[in-house]
Design goal:
- By secondary structure, this protein is an all-beta fold.
- Helix content is about 0%, strand content about 50%.
- The chain has one helix and twelve strands.
- It has a twelve-stranded antiparallel barrel.
- It is globular, with a radius of gyration of 17 Å.
- The termini are close together.
Length: about 220
């Protein structure tokens, strides 16, 4: 079956080292849309995992299609991403990545972003079927998309701290809260099917008031 997410939007310390994954998400309102428009838009991401994170290093190469043609953005515009990750111990991983190292599309506001993240999963109960049996904590630093609003406005490319907490409410359900580097996000992640590796996320970003206010988001993903 699928596994509930560890974060809503933040990168975390684990990754794919074999197989293929894909995810589709939609936000009802985009933050600071181009030309003052803030209509909803969708994104589609897909990637490939290589290597072995247990024995050496795992690697992900992915593409984020950042727009389906809304808010004056070109359909298909997006960026390529690279992530290297290593599993240090059971339930503990580290990763370093470069988001949008190559972008496509003239009206593309993706930030060229470097980041480092570590994630630790704590077993609060032995049986994973018990309520609140796991807590996943992620801490990271990054520039680009992870900068504060003030740094973005002043065009400062300083590094900033971000983090996430995921509480495994039940085996197929997690509640997630996170700081994106700019504002607060909260949501739930559900893997409802026992035999299908699918995960569904529903949440809100910019809850504390960054940008244009709270924005509701929906996502669905699968890995093979």
């Amino acid at each position: 079956r699928g596994v509930p997410s560890l974060t809503i939007a933040n990168p975390y310390g684990f990754g794919a080292d074999r197989g293929f994954y894909s995810g589709l998400s939609y936000q009802v309102d985009t933050r600071g849309g181009l030309d003052g428009e803030n209509d909803g838009d969708a994104t589609w991401g897909f990637g490939l995992g290589l290597g072995n994170a247990k024995k050496s290093v795992g690697a992900e190469l992915s593409y984020t299609l950042a727009s389906f043609g809304q808010n004056d953005r070109d359909f298909g515009s997006g960026g390529f991403n690279l992530k290297l990750h290593r599993k240090l111990a059971e339930g503990w991983g580290v990763a370093a990545g470069w988001n949008s190292f190559l972008t496509i599309g003239d009206d593309n506001d993706l930030d060229d972003s470097l980041y480092f993240a570590t994630t630790k999963i704590f077993k609060t109960r032995k049986n994973i079927n018990s309520a609140f049996s796991r807590v996943g904590a992620t801490l990271g630093v990054g520039n680009g998309q992870f900068r504060t609003e003030n740094d973005i406005e002043n065009d400062n490319n300083d590094f900033n701290v971000y983090g996430s907490l995921a509480f495994r409410v039940a085996r197929p359900v997690s509640f997630i809260t996170e700081w994106t580097g700019q504002d607060l996000a909260m949501g739930v992640s559900v893997s409802p099917f026992r035999t299908i590796p699918m995960t569904i996320n529903l949440g809100a970003r910019d809850i504390a008031g960054a940008g244009d206010g709270a924005r509701f988001i929906f996502g669905i993903g699968a890995g093979l």
